[in-house]
Structures are given as structure tokens and as C-alpha cells.
Specification:
By secondary structure, this protein is mostly helical. The protein contains four helices and no strands.
């Protein structure tokens, strides 16, 4: 397995986890904070989501370098991370891109 494929594999795994943590933050933790007076939910899920977001950006940068992707590709990945379900939608495209790597 090439280095670019390895980085892409890790990127896709972290993208899934980051997207899932974002949905949990928006759909469960935030309502618990504001409607059930449980701010700890946002503190826990928000911290986890923040760490996953940082890993996502670092891995997107690594994929850009190893798979020779453009800055536009990284921007598109960044945009996907701030739109709910964005990472899940782009995963189909990323799967094809990863398969084309040597």
C-alpha cells in the first residue's frame, strides 16, 4: 500500500468520525444544553469533536501532499466539515480517489 493510499485511508476514517461527532454535537449535545440544562454534554462532545476536527485538517493536508491534491481539494474538504452530512456526501468521491492511487 502506498503512502498516499495509507494517508487517504486514515483521512476517510477520521472524516467519518468527525462528521458523526458534528451531528451528535448539533443533534444531541446542543439540545441537551439548551433544553435540559446539561452543558456538560457540549463540553464533552465539543472537546471530542474539536480534536477530531484538528486531526481531519492535518490529515487533509497530508493527503494533499502525498496524493498531489490541490488547495481547492483541501478547501472543499474544509467546507464539507462545516456542513452537516458534508463529509458523508464527499466520502463516495474520496473512496474513488483513494482507489485510483497506486
Amino acid at each position: 500500500m502506498s503512502g498516499a493510499r495509507k494517508w487517504f485511508g486514515w483521512f476517510r476514517k477520521i472524516a467519518f468520525a468527525e462528521g458523526l461527532s458534528f451531528l451528535i454535537l448539533l443533534g444531541i449535545a446542543m439540545p441537551l444544553k439548551y433544553f435540559a440544562n446539561m452543558p456538560m454534554a457540549v463540553r464533552i462532545v465539543g472537546g471530542l469533536h474539536g480534536a477530531l476536527f484538528v486531526a481531519y485538517i492535518v490529515l487533509a493536508w497530508e493527503v494533499m501532499g502525498s496524493a498531489k491534491k490541490s488547495y481547492g481539494w483541501v478547501f472543499k474538504a474544509l467546507l464539507a466539515s462545516i456542513i452537516p452530512f458534508g463529509t458523508f456526501v464527499l466520502d463516495r468521491e474520496w473512496k474513488k480517489e483513494a482507489a485510483q492511487l497506486q
